Amino acid sequence: MNFTAAQAIDATTSALLDTPPTPPPPAARAVDLTKVFGRGESAVTALDHVTLDLAAGELTAIMGPSGSGKSTLMHLLAGLEDATSGQVFLGETETTRLTDKQLTILRRERIGFVFQSFNLLPTLTAEQNILLPLSLAGKRTDRAWFTQLTDILGIADRLGHRPSELSGGQQQRVAMARALMTHPDVLFADEPTGALDSRTSTELLTFLRRSVHELGQTIVMVTHDPRAASYADRVVLLADGRITDELRNPTEDSVLDATKRLGA
Ligand code: ADP
Ligand code: MG
Known about the structure:
Elements: H1 3-17, E1 28-37, E2 44-54, E3 59-63, H2 70-77, E4 85-90, E5 93-94, H3 100-110, E6 111-114, H4 126-136, H5 143-152, H6 168-180, E7 186-190, H7 198-213, E8 219-222, H8 226-229, E9 234-239, E10 242-248, H9 252-263
Parallel strand pairs: 3-8, 3-9, 6-7, 7-8
Antiparallel strand pairs: 1-2, 1-4, 4-5, 9-10
The structure holds adenosine-5'-diphosphate and magnesium ion (MG).
């Protein structure tokens, strides 16, 4: 029996039995993930057997004290660093089994990353920065998507400027457009509002929420700001490399309470 016929029967059976069809796999998944830096006396366990599913089409915030493993978790999920043990999946792909070359291609085509420090190339214009990953990958530019993204992000009139001629908020929005240009399966953002003032960070967070709820983007964001976390659908709290708590539909108050419990 071919795959399509099997699926048709599966769908029919579901309908007859009134059971929902199998849900889509999580956008990303960590299974028993451990990361140890260094060895012997100086070894640091940055992640300690973390298991986490990240649903597609959600904005997840990762919180926790400094040194709790937030960045390490993001780097491992995004395939930027190797795990010591455990597995990482992006959709159905186990990225912890890929060769470096396969991982480079997967990162380029299926993952977006935004850093606190923007990481734009200073000699390129905003437009050139946004289009660089596509040209490196030898992909054609989707001009309509470029226009839509730069419009939504409010940088359409800044495209000819170099990073030094842009404010911090504008630079971060250029970095965001660059990361979303390839329609990544998951956008990872490590403290994306960390270097922004409160008005600019509200604009960026509003954009993140819109891209999740209107465009179906999956986003994972590290933050230490309860207000930023309140924009998420879900908050995951880390301490000493372990997941200690989790909130759904957080408010600024419920996040504050949870971080106080974490400190206690
Ligand atoms: P967070 O982002 O929550 O502040 P990190 O994931 O950056 O935490 O770090 C978790 C722990 O791992 C810390 O103790 C940190 O010092 C350590 N660590 C992170 N990266 C490295 C590295 N490249 N080499 C050695 N130790 C590291
Ligand atoms: Mg960090």
